Amino acid sequence: MAITGESHSQFHVLAVDDSIIDRKLIERLLKTSSYQVTAVDSGSKALKFLGLHEEDDHSNPDRVPSVSPNDHQEVEVNLIITDYCMPGMTGYDLLKKVKESSSLRNIPVVIMSSENVPARITRCLEEGAEEFFLKPVRLADLKRLKPHMMKTKIKNEKLGDQEKLEKPEIQSEQQQQPPSQPQPEPQPQPQPQQSPLLQQPNNNKRKTMEEGLSPDRTRRRYNGGITTMV
Amino acid sequence: MASTPLRQQLSIMRQSLFDEGLLDHEQVSYLETLENEDDPDFIENVFTLFLRDSTRYIDSIEKALETSPVDYPIMERMMYRLKGSSASIGASKINGEISTLRKQFRDGDMESGKASLQKLKAEHANFKEKLVVYVGMLKQAKLSEY
């Protein structure tokens, strides 16, 4: 697979989806975009992979999360992309757990869903999701991931340099930043004409459709053909 | 790729699947662009997975309907999964049928829902038959080129 332009192989994406077909698909999309991928089928497996054990482990009330800010995280993950609707832990639950974790909260999280539910989209974005993709996800959608991953890379590199100069305890404070980032959007995101329910939330992070980039796709979604969205 | 007789047959079958509305041209073409040397059997694999999973989902929906009381959570989950995976591989007819079915059950219209389920089963059987042939031809064409 030819790697065009800069290599993304240093970016590692954790994909979470309980559907094996969708998992294969997202994996293929991510690999085509030259990202490293780990795909798991549940939120709890995702947390395990991230090195965070679920706090609601009633069998051991004294258990603390096994990851601390400067601890070796099992693997560096630059982005989590998760399906919304999963049995047990939903993508939203996973998002919350990630954002509540001091060690993981800076990992950008993207939610995918095959259902276009504005309230759901808003909820996820408010909880700190960077993007909300409608399924089936397209390669063009993945292009929106890079800015989010770059931010964490740059931050991590800066921190890496600083660690050599400063005390370790300071790092965790410096890692904090507000959940909503200004989106590097080159173009506005108009509403799809046939879905009056889709109101623009306060921020413009939600992906509705790629106006100007994939008109065919827009037509396909909203003008009939395959009814992928209810 | 060379236009061998096998490839030509494949192309004809592919087109007829589109023409019959069984597969969505755009979605399938899109999946085909994702196949490359790193994952040369991607399409066959996802189609095969769909063949397997869709059958399971439909069986589960049927069983859930037959239990007393009806197991609505299972039905909902299975319908949701079938809807999702059919969209992912471009199985337009199935996707359409399942959306109808889902709405009917959600609206509490059991009569229509059950009728739609039978229709879905018939569509699915037809689709499977053809997809099995198509996947077989895909594999054959590839093997004959090695």
User: In percent, how helical is the residue content of chain A?
Assistant: 25-40%
Multimerization state? heterodimer
Question: What does the largest sheet of chain A look like?
Answer: 5 strands, parallel
Regions of chain B with pLDDT < 50 over 5+ consecutive residues? none
Give the N-terminus to C-terminus distance of chain B in angstroms: 12 Å
3D shape of chain B: elongated
- Most extensive chain interface and residues per partner: A-B, 26 and 32 residues
Helix and strand string of chain A, N-terminal first? EHEHEHEHEHHHH
Report the average pLDDT across residues of chain B. Answer: 94
Number of strands of chain B: 0
Mean pLDDT of chain A: 72
Q: Can you count the helices of chain B?
A: 6
Helix/sheet category of chain B: mainly alpha
What's the main sheet of chain B like? none
Count of DSSP helices of chain A? 8
Question: Helicity level of chain B, as a percent range?
Answer: over 70%
Low-confidence segments of chain A, ≥5 residues, pLDDT <50?
56-61, 65-73, 169-230
Rg calculated over all Cα atoms of chain A: 18 Å
> What series of H and E elements makes up the topology of chain B?
HHHHHH
- Spatial ordering of strands, largest sheet of chain A: 2-1-3-4-5
Instruction: Provide the β-strand percentage band of chain B.
Output: under 5%
